[in-house]
Design a protein that fits this description.
single chain, 292 residues, Polyphosphate_phosphotransfera, PPK2-rel_1, transferase, 12 helices
Length: 292
Amino acid sequence: MKNEFKSLIIQGDKKFSIKNTKTDYTGGYNKEKAKDALVNSKIEVNHLQEKLYAANSHSLLIIFQAMDAAGKDSAIEHVMSGLNPQGCQVFSFKTPTSEEYEHDFLWRHYKALPERGRIGIHNRSHYENVLVCKVHPEYIMSENLPGYEEVDKINKDFWKQRYQSIRNFEEHLTANGTVILKFFLNVSKEEQKQRFLERIDDPTKNWKFSSGDIKERALWDDYMKAYEEAINETATKDSPWHIIPADKKWFARLAISSIIEDKLKSLDLKFPILGEDEQGKLIETKTVLLGE
């Protein structure tokens, strides 16, 4: 992996600090250079996806977490546009349904995991349960958990257990062939403000804006603290976090695509080789076809 992207990885051997990360980092790229590099990376990822599908030994789970207007949707649109839709699944998680609340918090996410050979993209994920729920612990009440009938009972031990559940979940997935890439699109508060204003001023983007976004923006510091803690508690060697500077969308897209490309290459995927009997059948079939 190129040095400009290696610095974005948090895998448990170092602590992540929101204050010490640059949201406008561009790794020496300019907009045009990044766009050209993204095109080449997408072509390579497309070839690797074909190998992933053919080998049918691994699946790839890509997780996007970010504040509102950080660019999750556009990143998915631009980075994944070169993939074969037959081998790709995208899930956007909203507020849990009544059925989902009747199960543990990981249940609905487990159901959405990609099959072997496929790429699964989770726009928001099981991490919402230690992010938005950390900022709004009252949401936990809807889970009807024994021993937590009041918000005041949701303490440090509760969150410690929830982080442990996530680590165990991801360790289990990794051991069974699911490769996990976790991306935090790190946008600045000022850049979010500008993007909100664009959504308000542009009639074609009004639908993207919600008054609730402003209420959550007022809790910015609480969210930054929640992200910092969640990332530090769940970043491991096998399931690291990638902190993507998101003020420049063109660099964020390149960084994401390059990291996906590098991870797929590291799997050393190969097309299956047929046995002697199957190869013999291919030759027989070819002879029949040529003789028509």
